[in-house]
Specification:
The protein contains eleven helices and seven strands. The chain has 272 residues and is an alpha+beta fold. It has one domain.
């Protein structure tokens, strides 16, 4: 078994190549793992500090607040309407502010897709664009162990690569770290890190009494209060509350995938 794994690890000349079919961008609603959709349905409509603001069937690619800001700028440059709307937020009872954590594009297909080509491909696109064919990385703890069968979305470009991915977790991570020259593996790890960071930060803000989120409100009442409250992006709230010194510095670190690089390198050093 070990020999088989070592043979596969030596087949690094086979790497992922996007075939530019455009399928992943032409159908952006509802593309999430089953476990995620079940959790959202059960918990995300008022039982947690971070509340889903739209029905499940309308959900599409999530955009962090700084990504949504960039997309608004780019939509003007390429003269389209990206239909960017609020998707998840926190109602802070201390300040009576509606804190926007993520946005989404209210469209069945990505508005930036034109003739199977991305109009903003050469920009620093959103993580959700740059992590595909992954839908999660191997380090995110959501209850079930990551395997090659639950980490990827539907992608024809993965057909030849899937049989080569080792079954054992350790060898699988080593393999994945080498066969995605497009950076999607690193982007998936960074996206998962940001997801965990957001959750940790919300808890820490509550401990420091900088945030008092509305939880277990009747959902209709929550939406009404949220709609009428002053809106502020999550990273702006962190800066204004003194939780972070500079949102620009924070976002720059995210953009450079600093956290993903550390996480991947630490794993590879432990298992070399």
């Amino acid at each position: 078994m070990k020999m088989k794994s070592e043979i596969r690890m030596s087949q690094i000349e086979k790497t992922f190549q996007c075939n530019q079919c455009g399928k992943c961008c032409s159908h952006i609603r509802g593309m999430m793992p089953r476990e995620d959709s079940e959790f959202i349905k059960e918990m995300a409509y008022g039982k947690l500090p971070l509340v889903q603001l739209i029905p499940m069937e309308k959900m599409s690619f999530p955009l962090w607040d700084w990504e949504a800001s960039r997309f608004r700028k780019w939509q003007d440059e390429v003269k389209i309407d990206a239909k960017i709307k609020l998707s998840r937020g926190i109602l802070d009872l201390n300040s009576n502010k509606a804190i926007i954590v993520t946005y989404f594009m209210d469209s069945d297909g990505c508005p930036f897709l034109n003739n199977k080509k991305c109009l903003i491909y050469n920009t620093n696109r959103a993580y959700i664009c740059r992590l595909f064919p992954f839908n999660r990385g191997p380090f995110l703890d959501i209850g079930d162990k990551p395997t090659k069968n639950n980490m990827f979305g539907t992608c024809d470009g993965m057909n030849e690569l899937m049989p080569l991915i080792p079954e054992t977790y350790e060898d699988m991570v080593k393999f994945l770290s080498k066969v995605f020259p497009d950076g999607s593996f690193e982007n998936a790890v960074q996206f998962d890190y940001i997801t965990e960071w957001v959750n940790r930060t919300i808890v820490d803000l509550m401990k420091q009494k900088k945030l008092r989120p509305a939880i277990n409100y009747p959902y209709d009442l929550f939406l009404k209060r949220f709609e009428n409250a002053e809106k502020i992006d999550f990273t702006d709230f962190l800066e204004q509350s003194g939780y972070i010194e500079s949102k620009e510095k924070l976002i720059k670190g995210f953009d450079e995938n600093n956290d993903a690089k550390v996480k991947i390198n630490e794993f590879l050093e432990r298992h070399h």
